[in-house]
Automatic annotation (TrEMBL):
HAMAP family: Endonuclease_III_Nth. It catalyses: 2'-deoxyribonucleotide-(2'-deoxyribose 5'-phosphate)-2'-deoxyribonucleotide-DNA = a 3'-end 2'-deoxyribonucleotide-(2,3-dehydro-2,3-deoxyribose 5'-phosphate)-DNA + a 5'-end 5'-phospho-2'-deoxyribonucleoside-DNA + H(+). The gene is NTHL1. Residues 362-375 have a biased composition (Polar residues). Residues 172-322 form the HhH-GPD domain. Its main location: nucleus. This is Endonuclease III-like protein 1. CDD domains: ENDO3c. Its cofactor is [4Fe-4S] cluster. GO terms for cellular component: mitochondrion; nucleus. Belongs to the Nth/MutY family. It is found in: Nucleus; Mitochondrion.
Amino acid sequence: MCNAVWCFRMTSPYFSQNMTAVTRGSEKLDSCTVAASLRSRRRDADVVSSMAVKVEEEEARVSQKTASLSSPDGSQDLLQLATAQPKLESDALSLSSHGRRRRQVKVEYDEGGSSTKTEHWEPPDWKKQLGHIREMRSSRDAPVDSMGAEKCYDTEALANVRRFQVLVSLMLSSQTKDQVTAAAMQKLRAHGCTAEKLLSTDDETLGKLIYPVGFWRNKVKYLKMTAAVLMKDYGGDIPDNVEELVRLPGVGPKMAHLAMDIAWDQVSGIGVDTHVHRIANRLGWLMKPTKNPEATRKALQEWLPRDLWSEINWLLVGFGQQVCLPINPLCSMCLNQHCCPSAHQSSPAKLLRVRSPHSPCPASSFQAKTESGQETVVKEERKNEEPQNVKPTTQGRKHKRKIKH
């Protein structure tokens, strides 16, 4: 009975049309679903294939780096291998979200490297101040110009003897005026100023020759010890570098740099003595005030052009001997009185006649008081200021006593 009904339904036109309709509808729905699924699978397949290609490339690169670990630069390759694995993982993560690659930030580097630029400090008015000092020193009549270390050696002696005499004059000039140093060098040259001659001279005779330079007893010992070292290691000559010069007894950085400049004609640094140290601080040529000449030398060399290192010593030394004196500097006669931060701070009251900035002051009419003649000039000014008709009180008392008796 069931088979008969099933056969009837299959052969009936009504049931056959409905079944075809249902079958066609279902086929249409199935075709849309299949197409959509095929597109998504194709997109996923493309993503997976691109990621697989990327992974294969990275694996090949890593394997190549691993093979090159046995080379001499294996440490650098090992570092690149260690950084390759995190990079591979980050690339896989960037491809995992809907097949979209994350946009990477492009980092650009300078070819010359990242170098921090530091500002070059220099005093605001140093060129103007230096020009004024050159104008005031144009006559070159300071003691250092005629009796400095450049003028104390024998120009007709051998080269090694001249260099030795330059070093001796620098050793004697410490804490000593140029006039005293020049007189001592003249006596030494007459006696014979060579390393061999000084080494054979007894201490008493050598002391009489260099007296009255400052600390002459200590300098006698230093001269004998230095002469012994030079005869032993340098054949009577002096070293040609600062490192070996400062190892000599009684030789400091200032003497070493000046010896390199005068004796060897090589600029190795600035020779800073008490004059240069004092004037550099007064003019404001240092970022911070310094307490000793060696600190001043290092501070000056940081900003002062190298072509001025040789000139600055004799220029400031003569300026310090004539104008910028240690005590009572002559600020009223200085061309830098309107641009010097220390002007008129240490000057006596009677010298505070401030010159107009527009008034001419030619170098020919510039008259400075040197260290040696300062006391004489001051005494003459005091005599002129004293009344001439006033008699001393002692004479009046003697006259009264005579009248009583």
